[in-house]
Design brief:
With about 425 residues, the protein is mostly helical. Among the domains are: about 200 residues, no CATH class; about 80 residues. Helix 13 runs antiparallel to helix 14.
Length: about 425
């Protein structure tokens, strides 16, 4: 909050500098665009309000604590049971009908008239679609609220069994370093797991890259499962120091969202810089899901996710949403995920669409649509959204990358 005047002052300076070089920078993704900037600032305000509003609402459904916790768990289990039964009924027709559409005979479902089996399947499929989404949403909410409740700062601080590290400079530096390490893994998880990407995709949704992009922050952190920063209290760090580390970490990331700074020399080998973070926001194939560090880039170098800036960065998603509507920006990936779950006919697919990588989701969706098209006697349309959702990225592990709502990899000649 205290940094907001600095944010706006820096944005103003960047805007004026770019305006003075408008002819030279014509077409640059770093230029400010009114609707895009308003959308980024709106999401920034939402990211401030979200943590104030969400806990008050969600505490009522925390399993074992909230007034409606049992209702939430019961809903999840009931929906799962109904969905499982509907899956079985929907599969009756497929399992009991031969290639030519004739009954194989035998006992059980095969003895039912084909018309009855068909009607049961027709009813069961939409029931499974609705029930699958309801069970995943309710179960996911139960899991995320339980995790947040059990990893809260106060709760873990009370369980500390080691001596306090104090509040001196060494303790502050240690807290910042430890926070940065945990941040790397949480940030990486937000790119490698679909339900986490649904939270983080907000930050990558702009096709421009300037200081206002830094403020386009997620608003749905309450629906994620993160490595708890509060665990630092168990190591002896005071809660106040942990919060200080959070502030330092967040404020540091502001200045790296710019095209106006090229490279900063030898510090590039240790620190996360505008150059490194431009790569992180790139949708070019080699840049997908790279450079997750916040203050330090050494984590990426240690754990194999570092990529230096080479070709000119193409910003945005592999499949851009083409909107400045804050609700669409915040919720589009959730909507796509729920549609994938509704289309699924097995629990393995439903869970995979939630926890596996967005790239896997795009490939599996294409397979499902292809199967449905084949079953209907049609041919899948080329060039559809699913073709653009899963670009081949040989340099990145297939399951851990290629975030499913990000731009088609395009190689652009390096800037002169």
């Amino acid at each position: 909050m205290l940094a907001i005047p600095v944010y706006f002052g820096s944005m103003g300076a960047e805007y004026l500098w770019m305006r003075s070089k408008q002819e030279e920078l014509q077409g640059s993704p770093g230029l400010y665009e009114r609707k895009d900037t308003i959308a980024s600032l709106t999401m920034g305000v939402g990211s401030l309000l979200g943590p104030l509003v969400a806990p008050a609402l969600l505490k009522k459904v925390v399993p074992g604590k909230g007034k409606y916790g049992k209702v939430l768990v019961t809903t999840a289990l009931s929906a799962a049971a109904v969905t499982t039964l509907a899956d079985l009924l929907a599969r009756w027709e497929d399992e009991s009908t031969g290639p030519a559409g004739e009954s194989d005979g035998g006992a059980g479902a095969e003895n039912l008239p084909r018309t009855l089996r068909g009607r049961l399947a027709e009813v069961a499929r939409p029931v499974a679609a609705v029930g699958g989404v309801a069970s995943v949403v309710a179960g996911g909410l139960a899991a995320t609220t339980s995790w947040a409740s059990r990893t809260g700062m106060d709760r873990l601080a009370r369980r500390r069994r080691v001596r306090s590290l104090g509040t001196g400079p060494i303790a502050v530096a240690g807290a910042v370093l430890a926070w940065d390490f945990i941040y790397y893994w949480n940030h990486r998880a937000m790119h490698e797991s679909r339900f986490m990407w649904a939270i983080h995709v907000v930050h990558h949704s702009s096709e421009r890259y300037n200081l206002s992009t830094a403020l386009r922050q997620p608003v749905a952190d309450a629906f994620g499962i993160f490595l708890p920063y509060s665990a630092l209290t168990l190591l002896g760090f005071e809660p106040a120091l942990v919060n200080t580390a959070r502030g330092v970490n967040l404020i540091y990331q502001f200045w790296i969202h710019t095209e106006t700074i090229d490279k900063i020399g030898r510090l590039e080998s240790v620190l996360n810089t505008p150059s490194h973070h431009r790569v992180h926001h790139g949708s070019n194939g080699p840049y997908l899901d790279r450079n997750h560090g916040s203050i330090l880039i050494i984590w990426d170098k240690l754990f194999g996710t570092f990529e230096p800036e080479g070709d000119r960065v193409v910003y945005g998603l592999t499949k851009n949403i083409n909107t400045f509507n804050p609700l669409r920006i915040a919720g589009h990936e959730y909507g796509e995920m729920f549609r994938d779950i509704a289309r699924s006919r097995t629990w393995r697919d439903r869970f995979s669409f939630v926890v596996r990588g967005p790239g896997w989701a795009a490939r599996r969706r294409a397979e499902q649509l292809g199967q449905a098209s084949g079953a209907a006697g049609g041919v899948a349309e080329p060039g559809g959204q699913d073709e653009t959702s899963a670009p081949p990225v040989s340099s990145v592990p297939a399951d851990a990358t290629t975030s499913g709502a990000r731009k088609v990899p395009v190689t652009v000649p390096a800037a002169s």
